[in-house]
Amino acid sequence: MKLSDRILEYMKEEAYSPMLFQELADALNIEESKLDELKETLEHMEAEGLIVKTRKKRYGLPERMNLIVGRLQGSKKGFGFLIPDNPNMKDIYIPVENLNGAMHNDKVIARITKASIDTMRSEGEIIRILKRANEKVVGTFENCKKYGFVVPDDQRIYQDIFVSREDFGGAKNGYKVVVEITQWPEGRRNPEGRVIEILGHKNDVGTDILSIIRGHNLPEEFPQEVEAQANKIPDEISEDIIKNRRDLRDRVIVTIDGEDAKDLDDAISLEVLPNGNYLLGVHIADVSQYVFENSYLDKEALKRGTSVYLLDRVIPMLPKKLSNGVCSLNPKVDRLTLSCDMEIDNKGNVVKYDIFESVIKTKERMTYEAVNKILEEDDEELKERYKDLVELFKNMEKLMNILRKKRMLRGSIDFDFKETKIILDEKGKPVEIKTYRRGTSEKIIEEFMIVCNETVAEHMYWKELPFVYRVHEDPDPEKIMALNELVHNFGYSIKGTDEIHPKALQQLLEKITGKREERLISTLTLRSLQKARYDGASLGHFGLASKYYCHFTSPIRRYPDLMIHRIIKEDIHGKLNEKRIKELNEIIPKIAEQSSIRERAAEEAEREVEDLKKAEYMAERIGEEYEGIISSVTSFGFFVELENTVEGLVHVSHMEDDFYIFDEVNHALIGERKRKLYRIGDTVRVRVLSVDIANRSIDFVLVD
Hints:
The termini are far apart. The chain has six domains: 60 residues, Arc Repressor Mutant, subunit A; 66 residues, CATH 2.40.50.140; 69 residues, CATH 2.40.50.700; 232 residues, no CATH class; 56 residues, no CATH class; 82 residues, CATH 2.40.50.140. The strands form ten sheets. A five-stranded antiparallel sheet has the order 5-4-3-6-7. It has a five-stranded antiparallel sheet with strand order 10-9-8-11-12, covered by helices on one side. Strands 13-20-19-16-15 form a five-stranded mixed sheet, covered by helices on one side. It is 31% helix and 28% strand. Strand 3 and strand 4 form a beta hairpin. It is an alpha+beta fold.
């Protein structure tokens, strides 16, 4: 057993009370020669927040001392919330006066000051900052002659950063800059910093997206040594590598992706067997053949964690030589893959499966659009062009429906929100916002990837080997109770709120389909769920109603997939000895945490770019009228969503026909005199009043 595990196990004992260093060494029978190792281990555990050293130099577990370790989530009003590392604990409110110099996203320790741990009303005070998150901040420079300020783009960093004259770095008023923090905030004193990069004037083309990229620490360029390593990889695959793999080059295998996709991770094949079952093959790019553990390529991929898809560019996890080249399952060329063949019966059960290294040569690079036209519109021209594949696509649709039906029967939750596509011109200006829903081909890929991910996860679970799982834990019962109270106002109820089953939420979503309140209840249901993340333990996937789940199908663009490919291949080749298993058990928790953090950063950046371009699009349309649906109601007004998914606020100060009172229970604004009612789901006509591009906010006024 690792020394850190021994320490934790000992501290978790009922009788343990905080000990001095020597007392702990004696209790654990640590020899004199190993005292330095104990000291190092304790320091490392303290830095990670696993244990706490008190002012009296005693060591103990944070939760035993009324302390919580987690990340601080800031707000533009100055207060924050501590998001505990323990996903089963509730968030803790931190008033502004109790931040004690902590900033948004810092890893911190907080002491509970009001109510007890794990109640909705608990408040805390930051007592220690374990790790700073914002060494560099992006914002707008303001020149005040003798000194300057940088106003952070991220409003969750609520204090401006003071810059002394000698640290301007050539920055001018109104320019977007990157500032490096040289002194952290203390009490009421602002943080201080120096300008290290000038991104351009805030109104210049391209500065906006560049600011978001820098703000989320998304590295556009790869370090020289990473590119050099990628460039050494040969474009052709040698026969030496192929001869040890199963040769599937004669199999009919296709990729189905978006039109713009260049990093093709996954390909599929399907045969109908003589017994009536289906043989589904999911063939995934074998990235681990090229990216070795602890190589420059691997370290950079882990640092990035994921590829980021912004509207006018992709920031890939791996260099283009790999992501668009030798790893991408491009049409009609030999490619190395890790395959999962599954025999599936007519009820959607996987009755047999095989996971193996393979070589493939895809027959076609299909797009979602083309396959949808064949299956949904019976397009004669496309059917003629792909006449050898039409039967295959029809069988894929049949199997998709079988798998989907099985998934729905077990209670999987399916949110059918509209997707948005924003079209930019060559200068990056938004010219069109289109909405679309998933078609048949998107559902085929979705179902085939889900069943493959489940099969691989269950296979590794029963082997009891270290692994990276994709987990989505059960929702907080208090949030489900609150949701139940809300839906009760609309005449619905949720079964079994104490131990909620996903089926109960699925049934609720089915009942509201097509109703006025669909948007509200779907959104609030989604908000009441936990966030999916990566973990070394198989904790199940609530949203998919799945007991075992992992991400196996996208190793070009997600690090956890690459990591588990490595583990699977080591298992295939019999390399998972005791030493390697111990090593994997040590590194997997860190990989899972880093991947979850980078995934969140990527999602935030993608959402910010989308919101920015929506604001830019509407800034050209001030004075225009639209019909929309009230998507949420607050005490200060209500938000209206247009057909193109753009959302704007109708502020109560612009509702001059009456004095409106907020009805929190019914999510409505009610006129005091005329009793006019504005509720979620109501259709209203609005005019675009103003747009604040910097804050990505849009204001509407009602049109009578």
